[in-house]
Amino acid sequence: MKGKHIILGLTGGIACYKSAELCRRLMEQGAKVTVVMTEGATHFITPTTMQALSGQPVFTLTQDARMADSMAHIHLSRQADLILIAPCSADFMAKLSHGMADDLLSTLCLARGNCPLAIAPAMNREMWANPATQRNVQTLLQDGVYLWGPAYGEQACGEVGAGRMLEPHQLVAQTHAFFTPKYLQGKRVLITAGPTEEPIDPVRVITNKSSGKMGYAIAQAAFNAGAKVYLVSGPTALATPYGVQTEYVRTAREMYQVVMDKASQADIFISVAAVADWYVSNYSEQKQKKQDKAGLSLEFAPNPDILAEVAALPNGPWCVGFAAETENLSEYAQAKRLRKGIPLLIGNLAQHVMHADDTTMVLFDEQGEHPLPSMDKTTAAQVIIRAISERYPH
């Protein structure tokens, strides 16, 4: 979103308190934010607050003397890359659907020309479910307005249902996705992420140091690029990527079962998870006591090779693998790519990336190896999705 100019419109509703954080988060992503408020919005949060957060003048009046010709509704929309109304009340949705223009924000939306418009509804569940509101929703969608939300949950009135405004981080994710080129539009992408846990007894496991950050970032980047994403995740402390259907597992065999069930439905499979090579075959049903002077003896059996088995499917998805090595990256990564029979493999040195926010990657394909500079994992995920789209046989 760096360099993008977003008009953030606020209409009357308690969800205006979320708009303050939304403004700040959009700016953290590099966007310039200009706030336009209805009179109703000013009863919930002040223009002074939004001006301090955005660093830009806040507009509330159709006839604004700060514009030489008092045409704020024209000039603001012509400068913007997106108009986002959050919160968008039921009343304002009705105005939009019927082309009404009785204040600056509604006039600006009517005069916006080619500037895209997105709304984040916020209202009581009964107001959202009302047939009139639903008719307005359909009209707005037909008119090309983007509908982001609403969410389901507890509302300010104490009732529970659909009508909550999406949270600021969700709206930032939607905005990010809006501006992302749709390299994978309509593709079905299956991704694994995180570590696996192999139990020793009911309270102890063997695992690895994978944080899941790279896999989650790739899942979000794939969604942003227009893909329908299904993420199979081992245990992590990360929030579920926005817009991504996620299933949580613990062991490698559980991950294998889910992936094999979903693989036939996927166009692309990205195996990012750090899957354990072995599981404990002499698992104890009871907690092992450390007082046992004989010590603890573990026996191991091999886990299924998820990536190799998916790559071997006769009509399976196009596969991407990962290799985290501690030495001889080029030799081991290329050997793994050939052994698995996959067209693209991303390699890195494990000691430099586990739990880190940055990564240094090398792409391995049939043309050889392609080293990339160090970058944060969010950026790296975008680079990977672009690389996949360039190689995927559309």
UniProtKB/TrEMBL annotation:
<feature type="domain" description="Flavoprotein">
    <location>
        <begin position="4"/>
        <end position="175"/>
    </location>
</feature>
<dbReference type="Pfam" id="PF02441">
    <property type="entry name" value="Flavoprotein"/>
</dbReference>
<comment type="pathway">
    <text>Cofactor biosynthesis; coenzyme A biosynthesis; CoA from (R)-pantothenate: step 2/5.</text>
</comment>
<keyword id="KW-0456">Lyase</keyword>
<feature type="binding site">
    <location>
        <position position="340"/>
    </location>
    <ligand>
        <name>CTP</name>
    </ligand>
</feature>
<feature type="binding site">
    <location>
        <position position="277"/>
    </location>
    <ligand>
        <name>CTP</name>
    </ligand>
</feature>
<keyword id="KW-0479">Metal-binding</keyword>
<comment type="function">
    <text>Catalyzes two sequential steps in the biosynthesis of coenzyme A. In the first step cysteine is conjugated to 4'-phosphopantothenate to form 4-phosphopantothenoylcysteine. In the second step the latter compound is decarboxylated to form 4'-phosphopantotheine.</text>
</comment>
<keyword id="KW-0460">Magnesium</keyword>
<keyword id="KW-0436">Ligase</keyword>
<dbReference type="GO" id="GO:0015937">
    <property type="term" value="P:coenzyme A biosynthetic process"/>
</dbReference>
<comment type="pathway">
    <text>Cofactor biosynthesis; coenzyme A biosynthesis; CoA from (R)-pantothenate: step 3/5.</text>
</comment>
<feature type="binding site">
    <location>
        <position position="322"/>
    </location>
    <ligand>
        <name>CTP</name>
    </ligand>
</feature>
<dbReference type="GO" id="GO:0046872">
    <property type="term" value="F:metal ion binding"/>
</dbReference>
<feature type="binding site">
    <location>
        <position position="287"/>
    </location>
    <ligand>
        <name>CTP</name>
    </ligand>
</feature>
<dbReference type="GO" id="GO:0004632">
    <property type="term" value="F:phosphopantothenate--cysteine ligase activity"/>
</dbReference>
<keyword id="KW-0511">Multifunctional enzyme</keyword>
<comment type="similarity">
    <text>In the N-terminal section; belongs to the HFCD (homo-oligomeric flavin containing Cys decarboxylase) superfamily.</text>
</comment>
<dbReference type="GO" id="GO:0004633">
    <property type="term" value="F:phosphopantothenoylcysteine decarboxylase activity"/>
</dbReference>
<feature type="region of interest" description="Phosphopantothenoylcysteine decarboxylase">
    <location>
        <begin position="1"/>
        <end position="188"/>
    </location>
</feature>
<keyword id="KW-0210">Decarboxylase</keyword>
<dbReference type="GO" id="GO:0071513">
    <property type="term" value="C:phosphopantothenoylcysteine decarboxylase complex"/>
</dbReference>
<dbReference type="InterPro" id="IPR035929">
    <property type="entry name" value="CoaB-like_sf"/>
</dbReference>
<dbReference type="GO" id="GO:0015941">
    <property type="term" value="P:pantothenate catabolic process"/>
</dbReference>
<comment type="similarity">
    <text>In the C-terminal section; belongs to the PPC synthetase family.</text>
</comment>
<dbReference type="GO" id="GO:0010181">
    <property type="term" value="F:FMN binding"/>
</dbReference>
<dbReference type="InterPro" id="IPR036551">
    <property type="entry name" value="Flavin_trans-like"/>
</dbReference>
<keyword id="KW-0285">Flavoprotein</keyword>
<feature type="region of interest" description="Phosphopantothenate--cysteine ligase">
    <location>
        <begin position="189"/>
        <end position="394"/>
    </location>
</feature>
<feature type="binding site">
    <location>
        <begin position="304"/>
        <end position="307"/>
    </location>
    <ligand>
        <name>CTP</name>
    </ligand>
</feature>
<comment type="function">
    <text>Catalyzes two steps in the biosynthesis of coenzyme A. In the first step cysteine is conjugated to 4'-phosphopantothenate to form 4-phosphopantothenoylcysteine, in the latter compound is decarboxylated to form 4'-phosphopantotheine.</text>
</comment>
<protein>
    <recommendedName>
        <fullName>Coenzyme A biosynthesis bifunctional protein CoaBC</fullName>
        <ecNumber>4.1.1.36</ecNumber>
        <ecNumber>6.3.2.5</ecNumber>
    </recommendedName>
</protein>
<feature type="binding site">
    <location>
        <position position="336"/>
    </location>
    <ligand>
        <name>CTP</name>
    </ligand>
</feature>
<dbReference type="InterPro" id="IPR003382">
    <property type="entry name" value="Flavoprotein"/>
</dbReference>
<keyword id="KW-0288">FMN</keyword>
<dbReference type="Pfam" id="PF04127">
    <property type="entry name" value="DFP"/>
</dbReference>
<dbReference type="InterPro" id="IPR007085">
    <property type="entry name" value="DNA/pantothenate-metab_flavo_C"/>
</dbReference>
<feature type="active site" description="Proton donor">
    <location>
        <position position="157"/>
    </location>
</feature>
<feature type="domain" description="DNA/pantothenate metabolism flavoprotein C-terminal">
    <location>
        <begin position="184"/>
        <end position="390"/>
    </location>
</feature>
<dbReference type="InterPro" id="IPR005252">
    <property type="entry name" value="CoaBC"/>
</dbReference>
